[in-house]
């Protein structure tokens, strides 16, 4: 009888141990996800692309371009500081002598200003650099994804960034009856017609700061807000008038402006 009882006890112990073992494994399994709380894991980067589309050097290249942009912006600030201020005169008023240079310098300062994006990580020049005829400056992007990543990584626009060396001189979109052809407008498909502002470039430039796949502000007022806080505000006021920033922005404006706009299911076409 005794050996039988011992065998039964032994078997029972084994069963209990086995059950405990399985139970522990189960516990461990059910606990695993809890150790990976959403807070512990960084938000995944948006990457819906097939493998091989996002170039391996993308982050390094974006950082390189931003460094170049900073150098040019610093140079433009120096240029502004060295500028003899133009004389405001006449009726209608004009900026005499160095007026044109003041306008050009302001344009340069804005073109290379990465603060005109919610996360302060994208300037117009991010996609339009002078050494590539004002197109996209990242060779690996040009060979793979073609469109450039915007302020939110890696939402990207739809097309290759256009060279805009001559874009300001394009006429308003028009149909030439003799030749049976369209001329003017901006963009690959001329959809920035310039009908409203009488200049296609002026029409087009309103788009990128609020394009959710480019600079991504939630509202155009954010451009004005960031410009009103920029170091070159005095130059902006010199060119556009003292009252240009007479705006009582609500106290939470920065918080709103540093939140990128939500992507649209259908792209807005600017
Ligand atoms: C994320 C990349 C990106 C950024 C940032 C960007 N652009 Fe562009 N730009 C493009 C693309 C892409 C096109 C062509 C779009 C099309 O044809 O549909 C374009 C086209 C243009 C054109 C038209 C040129 C022509 O010859 O018709 C102008 C002008 C322009 N951009 C100005 C700007 C300005 C000004 C800014 C900043 C306020 C800016 N872009 C920021 C990508 C960008």
Can you walk through the features of this model?
The N and C termini lie far apart (91 Å). This protein is 38% helix and 4% strand. The protein is globular, with a radius of gyration of 29 Å. Helix 2 packs antiparallel against helix 3. It is built from 8 helices and 4 strands. The strands form 2 sheets. A two-stranded antiparallel ribbon has the order 1-2. The protein has a domain at 58-164 and 202-257: Cytochrome Bc1 Complex, Chain D, domain 2 (Orthogonal Bundle), CATH 1.10.760. The protein is mostly helical. Bound molecules: heme C. Heme C is lined by residues 122, 124, 126-128, 148, 150, 157, 159, 161-162, 164, 167, 186-188, 201, 204-205, 208-209, 214-215.
Structural features:
270 residues; mainly alpha; Cytochrome Bc1 Complex, Chain D, domain 2; two-stranded antiparallel ribbon; 8 helices; 38% helix; 4% strand; globular; binds heme C
């Amino acid at each position: 009888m005794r050996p039988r009882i011992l065998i039964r006890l032994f078997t029972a112990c084994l069963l209990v141990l086995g059950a405990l073992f399985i139970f522990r494994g189960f516990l461990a399994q059910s606990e695993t996800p809890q150790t990976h709380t959403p807070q512990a894991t960084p938000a995944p980067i948006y990457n819906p692309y097939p493998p091989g589309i996002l170039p391996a050097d993308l982050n390094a290249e974006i950082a390189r371009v931003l460094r170049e942009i900073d150098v040019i912006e610093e140079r433009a600030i120096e240029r502004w500081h060295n500028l003899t201020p133009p004389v405001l005169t006449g009726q209608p008023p004009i900026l005499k002598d160095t007026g044109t240079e003041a306008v050009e310098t302001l344009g340069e300062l804005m073109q290379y200003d990465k603060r005109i994006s919610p996360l302060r990580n994208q300037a117009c020049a991010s996609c339009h650099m002078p050494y590539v005829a004002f197109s996209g400056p990242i060779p690996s992007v040009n060979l793979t994804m073609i469109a450039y990543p915007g302020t939110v990584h890696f939402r990207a626009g739809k097309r290759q960034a256009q060279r805009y060396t001559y874009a300001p001189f394009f006429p308003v979109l028009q149909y030439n009856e003799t030749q049976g052809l369209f001329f003017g407008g901006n963009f690959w498909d001329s959809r920035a017609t310039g009908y409203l502002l009488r200049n296609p470039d002026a029409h087009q430039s309103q788009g990128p700061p609020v394009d959710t796949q480019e600079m991504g502000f939630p509202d155009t007022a954010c451009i004005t807000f960031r410009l009103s806080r920029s170091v070159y505000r005095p130059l902006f006021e010199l060119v556009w008038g003292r009252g240009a920033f007479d705006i009582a922005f609500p106290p939470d404006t920065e918080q709103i402006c540093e939140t990128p706009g939500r992507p649209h299911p259908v792209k807005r076409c600017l």
